[in-house]
UniProtKB/TrEMBL annotation:
Superkingdom of origin: Bacteria
Secretion signal span: 1-27
The organism of origin for this protein: Paramuribaculum intestinale
Gene3D superfamilies given in the database record: Chitobiase/beta-hexosaminidase domain 2-like (3.30.379.10), Glycosidases (3.20.20.80), N-acetyl-b-d-glucoasminidase (1.20.120.670)
GO terms (BP aspect): carbohydrate metabolic process
Lineage, broadest ranks: Bacteria, Pseudomonadati, Bacteroidota, Bacteroidia, Bacteroidales
Protein's UniProt name: Alpha-N-acetylglucosaminidase
Length: 700
């Protein structure tokens, strides 16, 4: 635990105080893109990289050249210039800005491009984020972390990210105007780690109530986030009004509502009937509050009836018109952004919305590409998206070839020019950087390309030098397995580590909707880990290499753990107890080995997650406990006993992290083996999980 905390402090202090002061003073007289370059290069770009914004019609472009020993980047938008900077850093300077390493200095001798590099965007929209990301990855981010993420967005060409920070303050203000008191509002708005599902109309109040401190802090933070985004030409996507109201609004105010039922055992907010005057009144009131706090937006995200909401009695065509009309009243130039997920969007609802007023996120193009179904999005524009991650789970995963080919297939099939963008829509981030890099280069690559050759250039950038044969062989093994998962692979997201599963002799997954079935031999990831370890002396001090080495070793250990579980299942069925005991001990030792391996990387420690939550509370012990409890619940039981045990949410957001492996996952498996092999009492896993949450809430 102490090791994680010490390394976490080092991780957060990337720039020296002197460098920070210099960057801050210099930034006052710099353009936004110059300031961005100074931040990500730790103050080493001044006078060495020159940016020229050249306004022009047509697709965005950037051009990289050299002049008098300096790098010159031209472009026709700030985001294009930032993308050009990232292209230069990767493919000329050998510097990869990644979540595990968000700033790096330029070398003393500035690398110059050997020839002019020019790239043009084939699509105008580059979308980012899923509602779930704000809970599974971002709930306890401070201003510093957010500012670094915005820099990362700009570097990767993102120009329309979802931005729901501080939206709970809009709702608090709105509900007070409707006559709700603080206690009633606290029963409606969820706790900090569960705001995503409250915002998606899935639940009310769970994990709350929020303290006043939270509303004030998040509102102030959103102002800074939006200001930084817009300075870089990034347009935030705000949550719009989609008909959500507290489930008790009928009894309190007499509003006519539809009951969308329950979600995983939680009572959903009600849906305000679109055929009433109250719908327009409440929608206008929502946008007035939103505008007064954060200003108008170009894009608004609305997803009514998310994940199975009951639509019985709802006039869907009218609902679509009313939602769109309310949005247009607040900004006639705005567009409705909607997720294509599950049964949404329903054609009856979106067919009444004017073409050009909606953008559909094909949320899971990397596996369930709905765009291939003719007419599914009516006449609306749509964005090709990579979901990749579920629940913030840890694991190497992707579909490199399929995702690349799918994008160019979509362009070739797009005779009506409705494909307008590429998007990243993961439930959790800060994982699999190779896949996000690949996805966000697609808009800037005009032709199909070989992913192996691309991978070699990526690794050269990531590690800052030509890759050794051992490293290339390691990544070839990964590219041929975990990073080219078949479409027919069971479950969603990565192959799940059974270290993180509630124990049984034949577990199929760690989470209810996932899968731990290996579609490749565990020898493949073991080979990759061995090769990376063999080459490690050549990359001493390289932060990106250290992160990847730990992550690949983690995957190899997890795959071996999954193999041992299958072996134990067979031994149990055959009644070979002596061998079963030996293998179970090996499995337990492997969990502890995994814990120790990850302890050296702060991003892979549960203390980093919990301490981030606690840091936002300041000196208030009760608020600190609330935030830590939210953080601990989310990655274990998720909800109450009904949601966790009967509706399957336990371990949905499991994390293969140091600390959690040793303190909970190891203890669950040990209790299981003691019960099954040594006659100890049968364990109550939900009790063990809630006890872990209680201890970590108390910082024990």
């Amino acid at each position: 635990m102490l090791l994680c905390k010490q390394k976490s402090m080092k991780f957060r202090s990337v720039l020296s105080l002197v460098a920070l002061c210099m960057i801050s003073l210099s930034a006052k007289s710099m353009s936004p893109v110059d300031s961005l370059a100074m931040r990500v290069t730790e103050g080493t770009s001044a006078g060495r990289i020159i940016f020229n914004e050249i306004p022009s019609a047509g697709p965005e472009f950037f051009e990289i050249s050299a002049d008098s020993g300096r790098v010159v980047i031209d472009g026709n938008s700030k985001v294009a210039l930032a993308t050009g900077l990232n292209w230069y850093l990767k493919y000329v300077a050998g510097i990869h800005i990644s979540w595990n390493n968000l700033t790096q200095p330029l070398p003393d001798k500035l690398p110059l491009p050997k020839e002019t590099i020019r790239k043009k965007a084939s699509v105008a929209d580059r979308y980012y984020l899923n509602y779930c990301t704000f809970s599974y990855s971002m709930p306890f981010w401070d201003e510093e972390r957010w500012m670094k993420e915005i820099d990362w967005m700009a570097l990767h060409g993102i120009n329309m990210p979802l931005m729901m920070t501080g939206i709970e303050t809009v709702w608090r203000n709105l509900l007070k105007k409707l006559g709700y008191d603080d206690e009633e509002i606290g029963r409606f708005i969820s706790g900090p780690a569960f705001l995503a599902w409250w915002q998606m109309n899935n639940l009310e109040g769970w994990g709350g109530p929020l303290p006043d401190q939270w509303y004030d802090r998040q509102s102030a933070l959103q102002h800074k986030i939006v200001a930084r985004m817009r300075s870089l030409g990034i347009e935030p996507v705000y949550p719009g009004y989609a008909g959500m109201v507290p489930h008790d609004i009928n009894s309190k105010l007499g509003y006519k509502v539809a009951d969308p039922g329950k979600w995983c055992g939680f009572v959903r907010p009600a849906f305000l009937s679109p055929d009433t005057e109250e719908f327009s009144y409440l929608a206008d009131l929502y946008y007035q509050e939103l505008d007064s706090l954060y200003g108008k937006a170009k894009y608004y995200s609305m997803d009514p009836f998310h994940e199975g909401g009951n639509t019985s009695g709802v006039d869907l065509p009218l609902a679509g018109r009313r939602i769109a009309e309310a949005m247009k009243r607040t900004n006639p130039e705005s567009s409705w952004v909607i997720q294509s997920w599950g049964g949404n969007p329903m054609l009856a609802m979106i067919d009444t919305v004017k073409a050009g007023d909606m953008k559909v996120l094909d949320l899971y193009s990397d596996k369930d590409a709905k765009w291939r179904r003719k007419g599914i999005y009516a006449d609306h524009e749509w964005i090709y998206c990579m979901l990749l991650n579920f629940g913030g789970n840890v694991g190497l995963h992707g579909r490199m070839d399929m995702f690349v080919d799918g994008f160019y297939d979509a362009q070739e099939a797009d005779s009506l020019h409705r494909l307008t963008g590429v998007g990243l829509t993961p439930e959790g981030i800060e994982n699999n950087p190779v896949m996000y890099e690949l996805a966000m280069e697609l808009p800037w690559r005009s032709e199909r390309f070989d992913t192996r050759e691309w991978l070699r250039s990526y690794l050269t950038a990531r590690y800052g030098r030509e890759v050794t044969p051992e490293v290339m062989a390691a990544w070839d093994a990964l590219r041929n397995t975990v990073y080219n998962a078949p479409i027919e692979m069971e479950g969603q997201g990565t192959v799940e580590s059974l270290f993180c599963a509630r124990p049984s002799w034949n577990p199929r997954s760690a989470s209810t909707w996932g899968s731990s079935e290996l579609f490749y031999s565990p020898d493949s990831t073991a080979k990759a880990a061995a090769l990376m370890l063999q080459a490690a002396p050549d990359y001493v001090g390289n932060a990106n290499y250290a992160f990847d080495l730990a992550d690949i070793r983690r995957q190899a250990n997890a795959d071996e753990g999954n193999r041992l579980i299958r072996l134990m299942s067979d031994l149990h069925d055959r009644g070979i107890t002596d061998s079963l005991t030996i293998v179970s001990d090996r499995f337990l030792n492997l969990i502890l080995e995994q814990d120790s391996t990850l302890a050296r990387q702060p991003e892979m420690c549960v203390d980093t997650w919990l301490d981030d939550a606690a840091c936002l509370a300041g000196d208030d012990d009760n608020i600190r406990k609330l935030y830590r409890r939210n953080a601990a619940q989310l990655i274990t039981v998720w909800g109450d006993s009904v949601a966790s045990n009967l509706r399957g949410l336990h371990d949905y957001s499991h994390r293969e992290w140091s600390g959690l492996l040793r303190e909970l996952y190891y203890q669950r498996w040990k209790a299981f083996f003691d019960s099954e092999l040594r006659g100890a009492p049968k364990p109550d896993y939900y009790l063990m999980e809630t006890e872990w949450v209680r201890r970590r809430e108390q910082n024990q």
